[in-house]
Amino acid sequence: MIDNTRPLAVFDLDGTLADSSHRQRFLDRRPRDWDAFFAAAPADPPLAEGVALCREAAGECEVVYLTGRPERCREDTLAWLAEQALPAGALHMRRNDDRRPARVTKLQILRGLGRSREIRMLVDDDELVCDAAEQAGFRVVRARWTAASEALKDAQEREGRT
């Protein structure tokens, strides 16, 4: 049974829990190969720092996953989370046709979650998402344990793809 009184710890996936660097090559070319980029996600190695923080947070919080991945990736994403033995939690994904910047879509979901629950922290690697969340009053932990991909940053902001 889920305890609706526990605070939430909200975790991003790509660049926070999952090392997506092996699939960045699909974004470095034009046109970008989004199908291949997302198809390769099940092979993402876990990021030890993010996984450890997620497991630690689960001691006091209900874990929620918030990703810019499109809804069509739900099955693969849930399987990956289970394979990593990450805490069970709701998975919030982008609608397949949603092309808004990640900072907009994620903040909208955070605000919705925050209406009825305390959000203890958001853990994300996207600086623009982190900035927007902090400006909205959320506590942010910036996942800086991997090198940022310029192609992915551009895709998140301009193409609203992840």
Summary, kept brief:
The protein has about 160 residues and is an alpha/beta fold. About 35% of the residues lie in helices and about 15% in strands. A five-stranded parallel beta sheet has the order 3-2-1-4-5, sandwiched between helices.
What does this structure look like?
The structure is a single chain. By secondary structure, this protein is of the alpha/beta class. It contains six helices and five strands, in the order E-H-H-E-H-E-H-E-H-E-H. Strands 3-2-1-4-5 form a five-stranded parallel beta sheet, sandwiched between helices. Helix 4 runs parallel beside helix 5. The radius of gyration is 15 Å and the shape is globular. The termini are far apart.
Can you give keywords for this protein?
162 residues, alpha/beta, globular, single chain
Q: Over the alpha carbons, how many angstroms does the gyration radius reach? A: 15 Å
Task: Report strand %.
Answer: 15-25%
> What kind of sheet is the major sheet?
5 strands, parallel
Distance between the termini: 31 Å
Number of strands: 5
Percent in helix: 25-40%
Q: Strand-and-helix sequence, N→C? A: EHHEHEHEHEH
Average pLDDT figure: 91
Shape: globular
Q: Structural class, from secondary structure content?
A: alpha/beta
- Provide a count of the helices: 6
Low-confidence blocks of residues:
none
Going across the biggest sheet, name each strand in turn.
3-2-1-4-5
Q: Could you outline the blueprint of secondary structure elements for this entry?
A:
Blueprint: E1 8-11, H1 34-39, H2 48-57, E2 62-70, H3 74-83, E3 90-94, H4 102-114, E4 119-124, H5 127-135, E5 140-142, H6 150-159
Parallel strand pairs: 1-2, 1-4, 2-3, 4-5
